[in-house]
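I hope you will forgive my troubling you with a question about protein structure. You will find the record immediately after this paragraph.
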Amino acid sequence: MVDAMLDFMLGPMRGIGTFYYENQMIFNTLIVGIAIYKLSGKKRTSANQS
């Protein structure tokens, strides 16, 4: 029943979700890396302006 509801609510996005779950470790590593890069970039720019 849950699969039927997910198919109805997500539609074609369901295939993208399956791809994401299969490669979740790679995507999460990229997202965390980008977030750390952006946070460290903001600290550098604010320190230079002081």
